[in-house]
């Protein structure tokens, strides 16, 4: 369950992924009026199956965690329960049980009072990467390039503040303007610099349009830098991991060869 190896283990985890994905898809369809009734009925049954399944799996993982020395005994089991992914499992299981218990029929999923608990059920997708390889890779890349990212974010933040303030000064006296305060100008600056462009707020004066053009160009040229930094960092990190895996695969044959040569040498001596 923790370190899947072999066809059966991979098949089990793929099956669990499809079950979680099916529940997520049914949750989406339950918010669409045309498919609400059918999706809620199927989702209620799927939720019962998933809760029972994950509860049994959780207790099996808790029971089998004692095979490792640091998780043996009551203190070890408690240490195992404090792991982040175990906490996520506990939260999702409890949230699912509460949603199921508080309703006597599948219509429990349609009540607005319990829709907030549905968020915790979405955390099931997080548990798919139980070993945390994705998050460790992301964290290592961000940490390795932290100085470049901080620099770009700092300069981008300064550009956002100055551009929003200048547009606010140019537009605040215009009749029927939407730049009524600096907060609204900051909202416009964020949307413009991120090149989203909702179009709900646009400058009317030519000075404001010049500043807006500068912001758009700044967003295209400068705000793409973090993506490039992270992309190159991911590529380098993946290459490094591949080299490490290659070295690990070569280590065992090399050790076997050295042992064989040493035995031959000892036998000749």
From TrEMBL:
Lipid bilayer topology: Multi-pass membrane protein
Q: Which InterPro entries match?
A: Ion_trans_dom, K_chnl_volt-dep_KCNQ
Q: Which Pfam families match?
A: Ion_trans
State the source organism's domain of life.
Eukaryota
- Cellular compartments annotated: Cell membrane
Q: Which reaction does it catalyse?
A: K(+)(in) = K(+)(out)
What keywords would UniProt list here? Cell membrane, Ion channel, Ion transport, Membrane, Potassium, Potassium transport, Transmembrane, Transmembrane helix, Transport, Voltage-gated channel
Ion transport domain location: 10-241
Task: Show the stretches that span the lipid bilayer.
Answer: 12-32, 38-63, 84-110, 149-169, 181-198, 210-236
List the record's Gene Ontology CC terms alphabetically.
voltage-gated potassium channel complex
**A molecular function GO annotation:** voltage-gated potassium channel activity
Q: Which PANTHER family match?
A: POTASSIUM VOLTAGE-GATED CHANNEL SUBFAMILY KQT MEMBER 4, POTASSIUM VOLTAGE-GATED CHANNEL SUBFAMILY KQT MEMBER 4-LIKE ISOFORM X1
Output this protein's name: Putative potassium channel kcnq
Per the UniProt entry, what species is this protein from, by scientific name? Aedes albopictus (Asian tiger mosquito)
